[in-house]
Design a protein that fits this description.
By secondary structure, the chain is of the alpha/beta class. The chain has 2 domains: 273 residues, Aldehyde Dehydrogenase, Chain A, domain 1, CATH 3.40.605; 188 residues, 3-Layer(aba) Sandwich (Aldehyde Dehydrogenase, Chain A, domain 2), CATH 3.40.309. The strands form 6 sheets. A 7-stranded mixed sheet has the order 14-15-16-13-12-18-19, sandwiched between helices. Helix 1 packs parallel to helix 7, helix 2 crosses helix 6 and helix 3 runs antiparallel to helix 6. The longest helix has 21 residues. It is globular, with a radius of gyration of 23 Å.
C-alpha cells in the first residue's frame, strides 16, 4: 500500500463512511486503487455493497429530522466550515487526486479549488431559498408557495473529476436541507473519502453525508434507484448508464438529474482570431488528457483557415511532456485505465483505416502506465467514428467546412448536446450560430466556460437538470402550494 506523503495523513482513508462512522465492508472484502501513471496499488479500500448502501439510506432518512431543525444560517455556517477546511488542505487533496486519477498536480490543485467553490457558493445559497405570495382569485384567500427539501438524495459520480463532481452535488443537496448518499467511482474513491473526513471535521451532523466505495456498481446502484426512502438520483457519467439509472428510478418515480456524455464541437470561422482559437481549443481539448465531458471533441474549421489552424495547433501539441502527474516536468498525465487507451486507439485506427492522416501522435506510449500520445488528426469525414463518438483522450480530430449552415449541421449531427464553442469576430454570427446550436452551453471566443456561478448542464441525450448557479438548488427542492382560506 502506498504511504502518501501528506501533511495530514489522516485524510488518507480506506473505509466506507456511513452515519458518521468509518466502516469496513460487511463481507470484509477490499479492492485495489491503482495509480494509472505506473500501475501501482496505492490503497486497498473497503468494498461495500448493497447491505451497506441500505444502512446509509436509512441513516440519511433519520438525519433529515436533525437537519430540518437547523436554521438556514446554521446550515450555511456548516458548509462554510467545510469549504474552509477544503481550502486549508488543498495541497493534500490535490496530492491524493493526482495519485489515484493521474492528472498532473497543477490540474488537480485547480480542480480542488474549483470544487471548493461550489461548497462556498451553496453555503450562501442556503440562506436564499425563497417562496412566493401569489395573487389570489378571491379576497378571502391567500396563496403561498414554499420550497422544501426533496429528502434523501443518491449521487453517483465519475472518476475524471473526483472532487468537483462530488461537491457540485453534495453542497446543493445539503444547502437545500437534504441528506445524500454518495457512490464514487471505484477508480477514485480516495478523494471522496477525504472530502467526507473534512465534512465530519466541519461538524456536519452524522448521516447527512455518507460515502459508499465499492466495485459492485450494479448492486449499489439498484439500492440507490429502488429504495423507497431515496427521493432523487443524481448522476454524472455515460449516457448508457444514465439511461439505465433513469429506467430503474422510474419504478418509484424518483426525481433524476443527469449530466451525461458530450460530443463538443469547436466551430472556427474564417474571420476568427486563429491564435486565440488555437489557444482556446488547445486548453479545452487536452485538459485532463482529454478526459472531460465538455472537452473539445470535434474541431470544425473553415476551409480558408484550415491549414493555418492545423499547423499552429500541431506545433503547440508537440511541446507536451507525458509523465507521472506528481513529477514537475509532466504536462500531461495518463488515461485512467488500459481499456481507455485501447478505446482511443480503436477510434484513431478506424479513422486512419478510412483515409485520415495523423499529424502528430496517434499511438499509445510504450512502457509503464496508461499513456496515449497527444494527437492531431486530419482528413476526416462523417463516415469515421471520430465524427460521432465521444473521444475520452488526447485526440484532436479536425474537420473542414465551407459555410455557416454546413458547420451548424455538422455540429448538431449528434445525439449529444452538452457544450459547444464558437470562434468568430462577427457579432451577428455569434448570435445566429449560438441560437441554432443544439447545446445546453455555448462558449463564444471562450472555452473556459465553467464556474460555480453558471448553470452547468446539457440537452438531448447529454442529460437533464443544472448544476451550479442559482438554478442548482432547484433539483433538490419540492415546490409546495398552500391555500389559506377564510382570511
Amino acid at each position: 500500500m502506498f504511504n502518501a506523503a501528506l501533511n495530514d495523513s489522516t485524510l488518507f482513508k480506506f473505509q466506507g463512511f456511513i452515519n458518521g462512522e468509518w466502516v469496513a465492508a460487511d463481507s470484509g472484502e477490499e479492492f485495489d486503487v491503482i495509480n494509472p501513471a505506473n500501475g501501482e496499488c496505492i490503497a486497498k479500500v473497503a468494498n461495500l455493497g448493497a447491505s451497506e448502501t441500505q444502512k446509509a439510506i436509512v441513516a440519511a432518512h433519520e438525519a433529515l429530522e436533525v437537519w430540518a431543525n437547523i436554521t438556514a444560517k446554521e446550515k450555511s455556517i456548516y458548509l462554510r466550515k467545510w469549504y474552509d477546511l477544503v481550502i486549508e488542505h488543498q495541497n493534500d487533496l490535490a496530492h491524493i487526486m493526482s495519485l489515484e486519477q493521474g492528472k498532473i498536480l497543477s490540474e488537480a490543485l485547480g480542480e480542488v479549488i474549483y470544487g471548493a467553490s461550489y461548497i462556498e457558493w451553496f453555503a450562501e445559497e442556503a440562506k436564499r431559498i425563497y417562496g412566493d405570495l401569489l395573487p389570489s382569485t378571491t379576497l378571502n384567500r391567500r396563496s403561498l408557495v414554499m420550497k422544501q427539501p426533496i429528502g434523501v438524495v443518491a449521487a453517483i459520480t465519475p472518476w475524471n473529476f473526483p472532487t468537483a463532481m462530488i461537491t457540485r452535488k453534495v453542497a446543493p443537496a445539503l444547502a437545500a436541507g437534504c441528506a445524500i448518499v454518495l457512490k464514487p467511482a471505484a477508480e477514485t474513491p480516495l478523494s471522496a473519502l477525504a472530502l467526507a473526513e473534512l465534512a465530519q471535521r466541519a461538524g456536519i451532523p452524522k448521516g447527512l453525508f455518507s460515502v459508499i466505495p465499492g466495485t459492485d456498481a450494479v448492486a449499489i446502484g439498484e439500492q440507490l434507484t429502488s429504495h423507497k426512502l431515496v427521493k432523487k438520483v443524481t448522476f454524472t457519467g455515460s449516457t448508457r448508464v444514465g439511461k439505465l439509472l433513469m429506467a430503474q428510478s422510474a419504478q418509484t418515480v424518483k426525481r433524476t438529474s443527469m449530466e451525461l456524455g458530450g460530443n463538443a464541437p469547436v466551430l472556427v470561422f474564417s474571420d476568427a482570431d486563429i491564435d486565440k482559437a488555437v489557444e482556446g481549443t488547445f486548453a479545452a481539448k487536452f485538459r485532463n488528457a482529454g478526459q472531460t465531458c465538455i472537452c473539445a471533441n470535434r474541431l470544425l474549421v473553415h476551409a480558408s483557415v484550415y491549414d493555418e489552424f492545423v499547423t499552429k495547433l500541431t506545433e503547440k501539441v508537440s511541446h507536451f511532456v507525458l509523465g507521472n502527474g506528481m513529477e514537475a516536468s509532466s504536462t500531461m498525465g495518463p488515461l485512467i485505465t488500459n481499456d481507455a487507451v485501447e478505446n482511443v486507439s480503436d477510434l484513431v485506427a478506424d479513422a486512419v483505416g478510412k483515409g485520415a492522416t495523423v499529424n502528430i501522435g496517434g499511438a499509445a506510449r510504450e512502457g509503464e502506465g496508461y499513456f496515449y500520445q497527444p494527437t492531431v488528426i486530419c482528413g476526416l469525414d462523417q463516415t469515421m467514428r471520430l465524427s460521432k463518438e465521444e473521444v475520452f483522450g488526447p485526440v484532436a480530430p479536425v474537420f473542414k467546412f465551407e459555410s455557416d449552415d454546413e458547420a451548424i449541421a455538422m455540429a448538431n449531427d449528434t445525439e449529444f448536446g452538452l457544450a459547444a464553442y464558437i470562434f468568430t469576430n462577427d457579432q451577428s454570427r455569434c448570435w445566429r450560430v449560438s441560437e441554432r446550436l443544439e447545446y445546453g452551453m455555448v462558449g463564444v471566443n471562450e472555452t473556459a466556460i465553467s464556474s460555480e456561478m453558471i448553470p452547468f448542464g446539457g440537452i438531448k441525450e447529454s442529460g437533464q437538470g443544472r448544476e451550479g448557479s442559482k438554478y442548482g438548488l432547484d433539483d433538490y427542492l419540492e415546490t409546495k402550494y398552500i391555500c389559506l382560506g377564510n382570511i
